[in-house]
Amino acid sequence: MCVALLTYADLSARLNISREAARSLARRRLLPRSRSDDGKALVSVDLAELRYTPRPRRARRADPIAASMARIEAVKTEAFKAEIARLEDVATAYRAVFERERERADRLAVELQQATAETMAANAWAARLEDEVTALRSDRRGGSIAGHAARRLGHLAAAIVKADRAARAR
Questions:
Q1: Which of 9, 47, 50 has the alpha carbon at shortest distance from 28?
Q2: Most buried of the four, 12, 97, 117, 166, by CB within 10 Å?
Q3: CB 4 within 8 A of CB 40
Q4: Alpha carbon 40 to chain centroid distance?
Q5: pLDDT tens for residues 67-108?
Q6: Structural domain boundaries of the chain?
């Protein structure tokens, strides 16, 4: 009977187990323990009687909550992927609508610029005609009213024909 005083680290080295397993073994077998001068725990062990073979490790059962959470995550991942794909399709459709509306807005802007230019030209033309009518009514130049009016009407008719031809050319 060979009794030895061993620390948990020494006992674990002899039995080829961890320190925590050696400590647990000493408690289970109710081995006498004491403290060394440096404060470490010493265990009195009869190595001839101590027949300890570590149990083979059992595979741990999977935690049912963790397994459920993993399934939920997998389902959520699939759902998220499906939602992302759906949102990408929606974004593509909105992008097509946006492009179509932008082209339409560009066309309308060009038409508006053309209409503005035509309106300005028509306003200038109307102002010139107003001046012609005013000149005919007031007869500023002197001379015979009939001759002057005929001349002004001739200029007015020529200007109208010229404007009409310019409008048709556009």
A1: 50
A2: 12
A3: no
A4: 60
A5: 888 888 888 888 888 999 999 999 999 999 999 999 999 999
A6: 3-46, 64-169
